[in-house]
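Final report, closing paragraph on structural work. Over the funding period we assembled a curated collection of sequence-structure pairs, and we close with a single example.
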Amino acid sequence: EVQLVESGGGLVQAGGSLRLSCVASGFNFDDYTIGWFRQAPGKEREGISCISSDGSTYYSDSVKGRFTISSDNAKKTVYLQMNSLKPEDTAVYSCGADPSRSTVRRWVLFGHHANLDVWGQGTLVTVSS
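Its predicted structure, as stored:
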């Protein structure tokens, strides 16, 4: 079964940290770009970071300098280390995967939404003030 499964969300105080995990299965992890996305209530889904098969990473301006994306190809897992969290980071965080690096990158960098190949179910991150 083709799927992405996120974990690591929870409640944290402003200024705190969380690490999210996205485990892939059912497809060739090395051929895909994996991205992290978030959706706050009443807002559209925002692309915040992605990592391609060659290890290139990209970040939206809203998280650059605070969040770090990484991958462990042997475990087929992508991580999102989130530091200096703010209340406005509260959202459901999902990972998405697509064989097209440009498609995922354009969403993260320019907000160009697309139909990605695979989506996870999401994990809730709540940052209290």
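The longest strand covers residues 18-25. DSSP finds one helix and eleven strands in the chain. We thank the funder for supporting this effort.
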